[in-house]
Amino acid sequence: MTGRPAPGTGMPPVRLELALQGGGAHGAFTWGVLERLLDENGIEIVAISGASAGAVNAVLLAHGLMQGGRAAAQCALWQFWKNVGRAAHAARLSAGPFAPLFAASGPAQTEWAPFALWSATQAAWRAFAVSAAGRFGGDTTVGQDLNPLRRLLAEAVDFERLRDAAAPRLFLSATDVATGALHVFRNADLTPEAVLASACLPQLFRAVEIEGRAYWDGGYLANPPLAPLIAEADAHDLLIIQLIPPERREAPRGGADVVARLNEIVFNASLVNELRAIGALQRALAAGGGAGAGAEPLFARLGALRLHRISADENVFVPGDRGRLYPEWSYLQRLHQQGCDAAGRWLEHHRADLGRCATLAIAPAEPARP
Q1: What is the DSSP code (8-state) at residue 49?
Q2: Cα diameter, the chain
Q3: Could you tell me the end-to-end alpha-carbon distance of the chain, in angstroms, rounded to an integer?
Q4: Looking at the DSSP assignment, which residues form a beta bridge with residue 214?
Q5: What are the phi and psi torsion angles at 110 (to 5°)?
Q6: Is 302 helix (H, G, I), strand (E, B) or coil?
Q7: Angle at 57 between CA 14 and CA 82, to 5 degrees
């Protein structure tokens, strides 16, 4: 998957690692960013980490690169998200008189929003029925194959190819239910179940069991995971694609907006903390004159790491966004275009910085008060 050099330069492409944040149907924004990056000459994507929808985009991207390069990767992403739109349309039709439940405002809206991403006709309705039974005291001991994402992944991704040594390095986060610890699935571990585990919201689906361990959504602990990219991949440029806006300037109003903002804070906390830790270590290394000869490889990698970020503007995903409930094709296309535009603006300002300097400055954490 060697990238194309920039025209007229003859220079080797910049080796780039990607970290893809999760966010349900909002992952269509990431799809747009990836499509624009794949159009760019002189970039080679060598490693990808992801959580939840970021994990889905990661395996689709790697699969396409293995199957036929950049154009194949763009096609794989397009086809998957097109199928999501079709499934959402079918779910809206199948909901029938129950559609107002999905369109309700308040906490229930936020809780049920990610369901629509993985909806698929009868399987979606059955998943809704099972989860609803659990909420009202019914039986939830139903097999994992109710999750319709399994079928979409099986149709879209050749997981055996992803386990090939030539594939981009992949790191997908999940939460171990028993211990509450982070688990990272790597290429050798990749199956549809590994992706399902990374995208398993416990409000909607049973925990995904793999080799006797139960897993929930990886976004709780690493959204997306950065440490494996730094420790195990060998590129020096790491680009984070962040779906949760880094800042919302207006305070939430009303119960639904409060719940939505709380969810954003929870699912963004791991990234904020990991970035602060990276920044603190980099500042400490710089103050000490760098990693130096014979330093631990991890410190050498941290010292050479160049961080970048493309993030969604706070106006892209407004609190209470109802399109997330039924992310039909027009909605996904809008997010895709906004992702393409965001990547285009970032490249216009920072393309020349790739391979040369970081473009994401990490502010120090506030000092402890006496």
Answers
A1: E
A2: 68
A3: 53
A4: 209
A5: -65, -40
A6: helix
A7: 125
What does the chain come to in residues? 370
The CA-atom distances, in angstroms, between 20 and each of 14, 32, 132, 154, 242 are: 19, 12, 30, 21, 7
Q: pTM for this one?
A: 0.83
**195 with 56: CB under 8 angstroms?**
yes
* 209 backbone dihedrals φ, ψ, rounded to 5°: -100, 130
Instruction: Dig out the tokens for 28 from the structure.
Output: 């269509």
Task: Specify the pairing of strand 169-176 against strand 182-186.
Answer: antiparallel
**DSSP structure string for 224-275:** S--HHHHHH---SEEEEEE-S-S---SPP-SHHHHHHHHHHHHHHHHHHHHH
Q: Give tens-digit pLDDT for 40-96.
A: 999 999 999 999 999 999 999 999 999 999 999 999 999 999 988 887 777 666 655
Question: Which H/E stretch holds residue 117?
Answer: none
Report whether the peptide linkage leading into residue 246 is cis, meaning its omega lies within 30 degrees of zero: no
Q: How confident is the model at residue 117 (pLDDT cuts 50, 70, 90)?
A: very low
Is residue 174 within 8 A of residue 197, CB to CB? The reply is: yes
The span from the CA of 36 to the CA of 343, in Å, is 6
